[in-house]
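Can anyone check this?
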Amino acid sequence: MMDQQPPQMNELSDGGVEMPERSHFVTPAMTHAMPTPRHSGMSIGRFFWMHVLGGAFPVAAGVMLFGWRALGVIAVVMGSAALVLPLWRRIGPHGRQMRWSHTLWLALLLSLMLPAHLFSMSGHGESSLAMWPILPAAGIALVWFTWLLGGVGSCRIHPVILTYLLLVVLFGELLVPHTVLRVGKLFVGDVNDAAKTEQVVIKETWIKSRPTDGHDATWREPASQRLIFYTSGLHPAWVSLESMLRDRIPPLEDLIIAGQPSPIGCASNIAVIIGGLFLLYRGLIDFRIPLLICITAYGALLVLPIPVVISESGAQWLWLAMRQQGVGWPMALTFANYELMAGPAVFMAFFLATAPAVRPMSRRGRILFAVLVGVLTAAMQLYASVSFGPYLALLLVSLLTPAMDRFFSPRALI
């Protein structure tokens, strides 16, 4: 009998795999070994490009609020990743696991986590250095981390989070946004065209603001920075939780709908939720993960100790602040709303924590995973940073994913 050559699988341009045609000369052993196409017809490339469609909603909101500089950030990060990807795909077995669709999706996520003012040939704020080199460096570092972690399907640690935390360590305050376009300058305005104001906080909602100084954008202190300054207990003067929420924090509507300085992808929590619901509708993510992360984080923010009063002698931290005199349920719930909406917790829950390689495989493992991420997100936002606390929480819990897979793996009955 003539030896039969095993069927070859050709790689498609979108990163998927073309299944071989069956032949009547194939032996039973070969038939058992050959992979069969999934009934859904969902290839690797199509899987990630469908994620891009879900990400189009926060992209549109970010471009609306931060203009053409937001498009520039996205283009430079994705372009730099695309330029170096062919080189790393040729290096070792890890390179053969890298796909165009997967890498470009990761680059889009990373660009949405960055502020629009980085796309500038000159300094911004108090910095006199050009900040645009941060963007191509971010794209190159992302591809390197993806290669180092094994490519698509092997990254138990999210390479986007590693890249972003590296940028936080290296550049710190340069990643803090302070400007947002005015209502009449949406899409086409220059978000860096703003005059810095010494006003403590703008209590007027963004949608009602009107230009008074001829600038395209308005300068505002982001709510995340106000919350970090308060929960750190380092406020120089006496301040209570009530006075902080009343006088030193922007309207909650701006955080939920739009209007606060933020990274591009977190410009509108409504847009993030709509994009996440699209992914749920297409069956690309498990609804348990974002739902349990948000619910658990919200509950933990009500239970964990927070500074109720900050005086010259220090901060007074109390558990279950809603039960304390002078706080109550309305104020505690308002504080939890600000903590959840001011940072990237919702964006992380829908677009990062649901990555197939990061979350556990079993349903029970995903439930435990989401609960741990939610609790740790609340703790990191209160005691570390609202800006990157959710990302750090996901990084730490994802290290436990292999252990969860082993613990919750189905066992054969003997």
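Reply from J.R.: I decoded it. Confidence is low (pLDDT under 50) at residues 1-40.
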